[in-house]
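Feature request disguised as a bug: please show the residue count (151) next to Ferredoxin 2fe-2S-like protein in the output. Example input:
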Amino acid sequence: MRRFVPSSLHRCAPAAVLASASVRRCHAAEPAAATPGKIKVKIHSDVNKKTKDIVAPTGITLMEAIRDIAKLDMEAACDGTCACSTCHVIFTEASYKTLGEDPTEDELDMLDLAPKVSKTSRLSCQVKLAPEMDGMELTIPDEMENQMSAW
Ligand code: FES
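Example output, currently without the count:
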């Protein structure tokens, strides 16, 4: 059963009153908890000159989240087979530490050929989204080089 709470109570009620269950139910100012099976990702695109906050399911690759959910420009020429480096992204240091697995030798070889590589660079097609990555933040650099075009 819902109790009527005067609107003036919402903003300036004493803490003891706000602690009552009926008032807490009316206060929905706190952000919702993370959705199970999904994480938040903040993407800065130097290509599109915009920042997007998305919610993406775990288990897909970061490249798929950027391309299919954020709908930001990313060539991903080899479609995730670690053969082009056009899915290169640069993580914040804090986000890089949440990635878990280190890049493979194949990924490092491909990163060596990408422009604007930093110590927190990864190929987004090689990063599978996981719960511990919730809140990750990264940048898509504005320079890409498709290593497949040399074939
Ligand atoms: S999409 Fe080609 S290396 Fe990631």
